[in-house]
Specification:
alpha/beta, 7-stranded mixed sheet, 7 strands, binds S-adenosylmethionine
């Protein structure tokens, strides 16, 4: 877990407030730790679940889904909201297969549609509109994803985008790598746009939560 930005004490406290999770989800967290795979973690996962419940989301599109950890939080919310669909999109077949196994074990696979493909292209080709879009692709791809998301998210829908503090690399003026520039540019675009009302929530690596007007 990333903790450079949030003190270990605060990070542990935030995680301690997340409701108890099923063993399968705990196993996914352990696997991510072992493999150093960047999942959103329990505090951000719970926030995603809460936002999906608060908005009554029935149609969710995830870009960059990994092995299904973030998907599990959205899928649980969609089922509790009365059913619908969560699109799981990752370009790696092995991760998609692993995600299917976990989501089945969690009893959540019934609402999940799996795509092994590039995420922004898949969003373009998938019928919307969506209630929630969650973006966690490679960071250099963030700016180009925004116009596509704008055409697919409904008015009043919520965009959640991860890693907006990017382990503090955004503050390092010497870092002009494509990923760091991608996070900076996306932040500029969404905060300057009259189409969005957004806040950066500094949990873990920072999530922008934005309302499409
Ligand atoms: C940060 S991880 C996702 C973690 C996941 N959201 C979670 O919290 O469980 C991003 C994943 O998406 C994949 N990915 C990155 N950019 C992508 C793209 N443009 N299209 C499809 N997959 C992408 C990466 O290879 C990686 O497996």
């Amino acid at each position: 877990m990333m903790s450079e930005l949030v003190s270990p004490q605060v990070a542990a406290y935030l995680e301690s407030l997340v409701p108890e999770r099923p063993p399968e989800l705990l196993a996914m967290e352990a696997y991510a730790r072992e493999q150093r795979f960047p999942i959103i973690g329990p505090a951000c996962g719970h926030l995603c679940y809460q936002l999906a419940r608060m908005t009554g989301a029935r149609k969710v599109f995830e870009l960059g889904s990994g092995f299904g950890y973030s998907t599990a939080f959205f899928a649980k919310a969609v089922i509790e909201n009365g059913g619908g669909v969560v699109h799981h999109v990752v370009w790696d077949e092995a991760l998609s297969t692993r995600a299917r196994g976990h989501l089945k074990a969690l009893g959540l696979e019934g609402v999940v549609e799996f795509h092994v493909a590039e995420a922004v292209e898949t969003l373009k080709q998938t019928e919307g509109p969506f209630d929630i879009v969650f973006n966690d692709i490679d960071k250099h791809g963030y700016p180009a994803s925004l116009p596509v998301i704008e055409t697919k998210l409904r008015s009043g829908g919520v965009l959640i985008i991860d890693n907006m503090l990017w382990s503090a690399r955004i503050f390092d003026t010497a870092d002009t790598s494509p990923n760091t520039e991608g996070v900076r540019e996306f932040t500029r675009l969404i905060t300057a746009s009259p189409l969005w009302t957004s806040s950066l929530v500094p949990i873990r690596d920072g999530m922008i939560v934005a309302l499409k007007r």
